[in-house]
Design a protein that fits this description.
Elements lengths: L1 H57 L11 H27 L3 H28 L9 H12 L2 H29 L3 H22 L6 H8 L5
Helix pairs in contact: 2-3, 2-4, 2-5, 2-6, 3-6, 4-5, 5-6, 5-7
């Protein structure tokens, strides 16, 4: 009888514990559902803005705007013609030079002017500004001189011709970059500036740049 009484008294206690557990589980479930809904709303809100952000990131950079001056047109021509003789000169350096420094400079010419030539042709089409398909007679003559030279003679001639040429165009680049109103020409001038600076540096690294060459460049600077 005593054992039976104890069991009867413990039943309500277990019932209260069970009810509390059920209530707690219901609260947890409700909170979980609420959190899930909040997360979904936040995700939808972020997703709603994502296409716009992606479109902005993928949008056009700059574009073609602004008048094209006579100097801009001359600059386009000069960039195009520079590549038409300096790329052949760079290729000749790989077979005619005696110095690894000259061959390295030649590779810089090939890579740099390949990029600039592509930009110049694209800008020419976009701006409806015609550009030539061959270098000037003087430039073609320089390539002919380089073809006939070998070894150290080639090395010195290569540096004399290329360092003078780059120094002179460098002056024009600054004028164009400072004054052009056209966004495409401004981009081309910036890229050309960086490329020419690199080419002058690798030519100077050969140790063959002479005072006479620098004096020749200086004589072309307007006083």
């Amino acid at each position: 009888m005593k054992s039976h009484a104890r069991k009867t008294q413990s039943t309500p206690s277990r019932g209260r514990v069970t009810a509390a557990a059920v209530a707690l589980a219901a609260v947890i479930a409700t909170v979980a559902v609420w959190l899930s809904q909040q997360h979904g709303s936040a995700h939808e809100s972020a997703s709603a803005h994502l296409p716009a952000a992606q479109a902005a990131a993928a949008g056009p950079e700059g574009g073609n705007s602004g008048d094209v001056s006579a100097l801009d047109k001359t600059f386009l021509t000069k960039v195009r013609q520079a590549g038409l003789w300096e790329m052949p000169a760079g290729r000749l350096a790989q077979t005619h030079a005696s110095s690894e420094a000259i061959k390295r400079a030649g590779m810089h010419l090939l890579e740099g002017h390949s990029t600039l030539d592509q930009l110049a042709r694209e800008d020419s089409e976009a701006l409806s500004v015609p550009i030539p398909d061959q270098a000037t007679a003087e430039q073609r003559g320089w390539v002919d001189q380089l073809k006939k030279a070998r070894g150290r003679e080639f090395d010195q001639l290569f540096v004399d011709l290329l360092r003078a040429s780059h120094g002179k165009i460098f002056i024009t680049i600054g004028e164009v970059r400072a004054s052009t109103k056209n966004t495409l020409i401004r981009r081309l001038a910036t890229q050309t500036n960086n490329t020419v600076q690199d080419h002058m540096s690798v030519l100077e690294d050969t140790g063959l740049v002479t005072d006479d060459t620098l004096d020749d460049v200086a004589s072309t600077i307007p006083k």
